[in-house]
Amino acid sequence: MFINDSSLRTIPLIPCHKAELTGYLKQQTKRLRRWITASGFQAKKDEFCLLPNKKGELQAVLFTVNEPIEYRWALAGLAEKLPLGNYQLPTNWTEEQKQHASIGWGLGCYQFKRYHPQKDETPCLLVNDGVKRIKAFVESITLVRDLVNTPAADMMPQDLAAITKALSKQYQGTFKQIKGKQLLSKNYPCLHAVGRASKHKPRLIHLKWGNKSYPKVTLVGKGVCFDTGGLDLKPSQFMRLMKKDMGGAAHVLGLAQLIMSLSLPVCLEVFISAADNAISNDAFRPGDVLTTRSGKTVEIDNTDAEGRLVLCDALTKAGENNPDLLIDFATLTGAARVAVGTEIPAFFSNSESLTQAINQAATESNELVWQLPLHQPYRHLLDSDIADLLNSAPQGYGGAITAALYLNEFVDEQTQWAHFDMMAWNNRHRSGRPKGGEAMGLFAVFQLLENRYAE
User: Fold this and answer.
1) Can you list the domains of the chain with their CATH numbers?
2) Alpha-carbon gap, residue 454 to 180, rounded angstroms
3) What 3-state class would DSSP assign to 345?
4) What is the tens place of the pLDDT at every residue in 71-112?
5) Pairing between strand 86-88 and 203-209?
6) Alpha-carbon distance 27 to 2, whole Å?
7) Distance of CA 344 to the CA centre of its chain
8) 81 neighbors 31 (Cβ within 8 angstroms)
């Protein structure tokens, strides 16, 4: 994937915009002009042309870029298609541009190999500077993708716990978990209720890392390892991809790995609410009233609105530790997908300054995230006749907003909090972003953390 030995022979990668093609051809030998023309290269999107020398060996690769160049993904498609060899970045790109392009190259080499044999080798890119940072991003996003792509049979709460424990050991953190009936004695009743019907015990997974004197950053992830919908059973077409309903947990683990591998000066806490929303004689029911860790009571309008139930106990616990910043990730609502589509993560925040900081970080990192309003006048849609609130609004309107408002009930108003509601899945293949599990918002959020805490 990457090499850093400048003494090795490398093949130059030459970017070409469509408007520049005619001028480029004029500068080439007659032989190369004929070759490029015969190859049919017209500098269209995702096109490239292998340029041979007089011996028939590959001497360079001409590839298309569009203006403005989206550097992160400029080379990602090449990584998937080029023959094995060592390649060199365009020399006229800045170091920052090269770093973005190198990350995209690494993500373009991604393969999910667990169940199906893939090619063992990939083309290599020469990287002289920033190797540690480039690899950290690629490995963190690879972790997110691998976790989301893994079927539920091999990615249950105990598996998430084992992965978190391994990460904790790798980076000298601490790991704890509370599972099964311990959740009741330790006061995580909603998490227990969602997962109690499964033979795979629900659990609160906790990772802690970093110097206690540093600002405390807390990440909370929804880890519903499979979501049948509970007794409010999902139709089969909507259940098909529910292995990805632990995408929030995957995101916080990927982000935690990135924070730890790059030694960001924070005191990091990670809470994952892991459960299997299964159906049995012990499944929680529509109309049940649950008492949350906070003491607030929740009437169950729909058992398929389980993600906010597992999150609310974890958010309450996170707030008890007085974090400087609290961020949760969840594949929470189809309504957010209706609002912004499947490829843009939506976010909510209780802080205008944090919202501005997220938007700035998104611009700087060149990753689109989109704010939806935490619109308090919609709070009445969660009113219950017999409890403090409903777990979902019966009318269904503004579903992403009412879900965020539900979570907001369990966050102290003095705590700066952001909630990310994302798909965690690519429905189509794009360069460097294959169909399947995907990290969404990670570039923007890590940029936010660096802007806020990096020395």
Assistant:
1) 2-129 (3.40.220.10), 136-453 (3.40.630.10)
2) 38
3) coil
4) 999 999 999 999 999 999 999 999 999 999 999 999 999 999
5) unpaired
6) 31
7) 11
8) no
Q: What's the burial of 349, exposed, middle or buried (CB within 10 Å: 0-12/13-18/19+)?
A: buried
Helices (H) and strands (E) in the chain, counts: 16, 19
* Tokens representing residue 372 in the block: 């939806």
Beta bridge partners of 54: none
How far, in Å, are 19, 58, 384, 390, 437 from residue 426 at the CA level? 31, 33, 36, 32, 6
Show the low-confidence residues of the chain (pLDDT under 70): 119, 455
Element (H, E) at 337: helix 334-340
The pLDDT value given to residue 128 = 87
Which of the following is catalytic: 72, 308, 317, 337? 308
The alpha carbon dihedral of 187, 193, 198, 199 has a sign of: positive
Going by C-alpha positions, the residue among 128, 129, 81 that lies closest to residue 105 is 81
CA distance 96 to 364: 12
- Token pair in block for residue 234: 């999902």
The per-residue DSSP string of 413-425 comes to: TTS-EEEEE---E
Q: Per-residue DSSP letters for 201-230?
A: --EEEEEEES-TTSPEEEEEEEEEEEE--T
Token match 């939806």: residue?
372
Question: Is 181 in the active site?
Answer: no
Q: What residues have CB less than 8 Å from 297, skipping those under 6 apart?
A: 289, 290, 291, 387, 388, 389
- Rounded to 10°, the helix 247-261/131-149 angle is 160
Note the pLDDT of residue 302: 98
Decide: 414 and 323 in contact? Cβ < 8 Å: no
Which member of 234, 296, 379, 452 is catalytic? 234
CB–CB of 349/263 below 8 Å?
A: no
Using one digit for the tens of pLDDT, what is the confidence trace for 8-18?
999 999 999 99
308 is an active site residue: yes
**Among 205, 237, 234, 238, residue whose Cα is nearest residue 221:** 205
